[in-house]
Amino acid sequence: MTTSFFADKTHKTKPRYVYIGRRDLNSIWYPQNVIRNQKYNILTFAPLVFFEQFRSFLNLYGLIMACTQIIPSVRVSPLYTYWLPIGFIILIGMIREGYDDMKRVYRDRELNSQKYILLKANGQKEEISSSDIKVSDIIIIQKNQRVPADVVLLQTSDKSGSCFIRTDQLDGETDWKLRIASTLTQSVADISVFITDKNASGKIYAEPPSLSIHEFTGVLSWRADEPLTAENTLWSGTVLASGEATCCVVYTGSDTRMVMNTSKPRAKFGLVDAEINTLAKLLVAAGLTLSITMVILEGFQGSWIRELVRFLLLFSNMIPISLRLNCDIGKFVSSWFIQQDKNIPGTVVRTSTIPEELGRIGYLLTDKTGTLTQNVMVFKRLHLGTVSYTNDDRTDLSNILTEHSRTATIEASESQQPMSSTSRTRSILRKTESMKVCEAITALAICHNVTPVFDEETTARTVNSIDDENHSHGFASDTPMTSTTSLHTTDGMGSMELLPRKSVTYQASSPDEIALVEWTESIGLTLVHRDLQSLTLKFNSSQQLHHYKILQMFPFTSETKRMGIIVQDEQTNEIIFYLKGADIVMQNIVQYNDWLLEECSNMAREGLRTLVVGRKVLTSAQYQAFEQRLTKARLQTTDRNRYINEVVGNLENDFELLCVTGVEDKLQDDVRQTLEVLRTAGVKIWMLTGDKVETATCIAKSSRLIGRDHDVYIFKQVGTREECSQEMNVFRRKIDPCLIITGDTLQICLSFYEKELMELIINCPAVVVCRCSPTQKASVVGLLKTYGNRGLRVTAVGDGGNDVSMIQKAHVGIGIVGKEGKQASLAADFSITQFSHISRLLFVHGRNSYTRTAQLSQFVMHRGMIISIMQAIFSSVFYFSSIALFQGILLVGYGTFYTNFPVFALVLDQDVRPEIALLYPELYKELTKGRQISFKTFFLWAFISTYQAAAIMYGAMIKFDDDFIHIVSITFTALIVTELIMVALTVRSYMASANVCRRGVKFQLLCPFANHFQISFRFGISPIMGFYMGRDADYINLMFTTRHSQISPNPIQTASVSKAHAILNLQINIFFLTEIN
């Protein structure tokens, strides 16, 4: 057996033959069954972390500048001046990455060390870790235990061979899934015979490892061949919800479905980050230009290349390497605020790097079912062609069912008594009318994949002999409360009695099916038992049971858009094929009629989801021939699904149309108000749904996605270039219309006129795309990102697995935890619990995150520009010499200790109160223009930096020419205080922000300058500043007083501080006058 992973890739590309219980017969190498989510190991941690850190332009620039300091001839400051900041940033990054990876290691270790029972020869059992499981092993999985590998189900504790699993960690769906053991192995008394008896040689043929969790092609060979499908498998990561399962391992480790479907999420890069990168490159260009200018003005004297490098180092502070760290901290705080907001409980931020993107949303694409609606289905209408029934007619329907349950007795009595021809005719007509209703209701109660699950504490009282009844109908006494534990017969007619029990729970993959079964129960026909081979219905009025044998099941798929079941009535031995599905599919299967499409359209206009139900009675010969062809198709190992669909398709014709059902999906709370405020805020909303045009149109209007005054244009079905051109010309002549188009039509039009069509519909007030597949949803998102306004972001909102592709494709993905599970929520950047939370998420948190990030990033740039310009002025005064103005701890502390606390006050700032932001959504429209950070604001900050630097430097040199030797003390003091005041001027909300600013100023200035001055917060610098700041001036007014009475200050230091104070007052007064003007 090959043991090297690098030498053998056969396990990935070729089908495999797995010998049940005989790991020693494996002929090729299979991966170890371990979960490994960690990113690093001991050897790769440092190199990979360094690589990730220095992929950032700012970090790489800082590293290059620090490395040049190693050369003595170009060194301008002590080594720690450059190495300490870059080292601190890298250290923070390494600690963060190391902490996150250690958490992954512990989680992996916990999963890999979970214990499972390994079945050995002669029925012996051994407890082993998950990581020790190999392909071919027979393992026993207990209830509520995680499935450790991809396995084929051999046996279950239920005699019917069925069990339930939870798949929410695999596909996000919360409904339990039914799984079925192979009939060849379920009946084996001792499954260890495959290990003990060397001649038993049970073998499983399995396809190569695949991504598909809904399909599996395999064959189990032992005494006979039996096809295996996904219903016979348990995938790794699922949880056994009932009973005990004995399984054979077929895929391990990296070959499992769960690992193959686990991909690293695409790192999303925000628009603000891109804008900051552009401005950072401008700063690099400015620093280089300034350095070259200095060398030119110096006249290229001496070693001018060395001087150029030294100037580059002196001006490197213009590019703040702490910018990325500051912005990351700001984003983390914004994400924390979102999760702590009690007005939107349950919100989870899964991507903390893009909260500011919520402030730039211009296009919102939403699913319908479960997103705008609750995905809570309520049965509304049953249409039989000639008559329609609603929930108001339940009494009439119950009476018809009651009469039908007595039919057998009535017919028996009528056969013994003569009756007139008139009364017999009326009876026949009455029966015919009632039979239509009964057949339709019976079809709804049978044609589904619903299983009733009762509480485990439910008990039953035997009336005649429950065991005999169970065995006569193939029921198992240990079936997990899904059936006969509560069925009791009292006579030969099959009447029964139930003891009081807790409410039944229906398990199904679709809420539509549960709604139909619950409705049939409400009118008197209850599903009381369902297993692999049979189902039982009970007439509530007479307690009479009807038993059906399940011969075949054809589950619903998105490709076929229908589901079917073939049953045999045990009372009449009649074989019936029931089928239900979408009208677009069923209209070609049922017999000709003149009302189906019209009634489906009428129901769709009412916002109802429609299903067409039909049936076909099969003769015994027909079914036998069909079964032989189907068995042969299921044994195919290539293109199995195609062969099966062909065989079933040959039987799906000439069906009797029974009824059309209408189910309503209720709107979510406050959907109308949310859509209206989003539209007022300038957000264009598109609805992408798989429903038909009429249903989608009705929901769009009822939810006010389409306003009452909007003109609606429904794009006709097209197939050629000419038809596309004609429809586009008609649509072009409309004035500001809302567009409704099907996914197929959109795809055809895009293939001919992609750019022209997108330019037409990009500005529509609302767009509804119907009959839209998951792939088409993702492509629509991609088109909006390509052709939409580059300054606006695209967000996608959904709640189901079919929405994951568009959520991941969008700039911002928002998932809703709903009835369909958590798959969309887990794949999204932000997870919410209901659609109405979007307004607060965008208008409050999106606004705050965007404005804070813009302010913080530009202020950090300003902080670097002002000190670099001061350095340039200083060098020019000293004949363009490359001498540092500030050295050592002053330069390091300027960007960290001295100014960090007040800068973080910007992270807590807000320009508009939440109540105002929600009350006036028009404010959000202004925000999406992107004016918070732009070239205009950047150059304004650059002008302020130049002005302040010049005021400080030239003011110090002109006014205090006699004390020029103390220029460092004077200018640095004025610089620090200027920056702190600029923070206070930038902050617009003096609550928590002012507190941080005030305490930070006091702490930072008192510590490093304790021997120079003290600070008081009780007075103002000048009337001008008080006028400029208004009522908030008390928080930021500062005045410096020398501490003559407390210490014996150095006269030179006291003079330096007093002079700095004078320069600062002069500069601030001039600055405020400029601002006011």
TrEMBL record:
Residues 479-490 have a biased composition (Low complexity). It is a multi-pass membrane protein. ATP binds at residues 367-369, 513, 556, 580, 609, 689-691, 771, 777, 802-803. Pfam families: Cation_ATPase, E1-E2_ATPase, PhoLip_ATPase_C, PhoLip_ATPase_N. Its EC number is 7.6.2.1. The chain crosses the membrane at residues 80-99, 278-297, 938-958, 964-985. Residues 19-83 form the P-type ATPase N-terminal domain. It is found in: Endomembrane system; Membrane. It catalyses: ATP + H2O + phospholipidSide 1 = ADP + phosphate + phospholipidSide 2. SUPFAM superfamilies: Calcium ATPase, transduction domain A (SSF81653), Calcium ATPase, transmembrane domain M (SSF81665), HAD-like (SSF56784), Metal cation-transporting ATPase, ATP-binding domain N (SSF81660). Residues 119-258 form the P-type ATPase A domain. Its main location: membrane. PROSITE patterns: ATPASE_E1_E2 (PS00154). This is Phospholipid-transporting ATPase. It comes from Adineta ricciae (Rotifer).
